[in-house]
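Ticket #4471: structure export looks truncated?
Reporter: QA, pipeline team
Priority: medium

Steps to reproduce: submit the single chain below to the structure queue and open the exported record.
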Amino acid sequence: MDLFISWIVSLSHWSRSHLGDISLALMAATLVLAGPSINGWIRRHTASMHFIFRTLIFVLVCAVGYGLAMVYLTPMLKQLLSQLNNHSLAPMLIVLFVLIGIFADRN
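Actual output as written to the record:
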């Protein structure tokens, strides 16, 4: 059991030094998977609008909205993950990536 815990702590130490890249990967994967649902919701709610307004809204959401989410939510996720201790960081990252994988498989 001590070997397993030391492995988790070692993995957490390694992950902590790459937390910015890991947070970026988690955020990018989440946005890629959630993007079609968000775009579909926007398409349904803007269907009655003029083509120019629909296009403008779509560009704003995709370019500005997703871009701002990547720029501002990634550091927030990094800070949130950095608050976890070394016994819970690696398991949490594994769980998050597995959940993203399950969500990707179902879509």
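Status: closed, not a bug. The export was complete when the record was re-opened. Leaving a note from the reviewer for reference: The longest helix spans residues 51-82.
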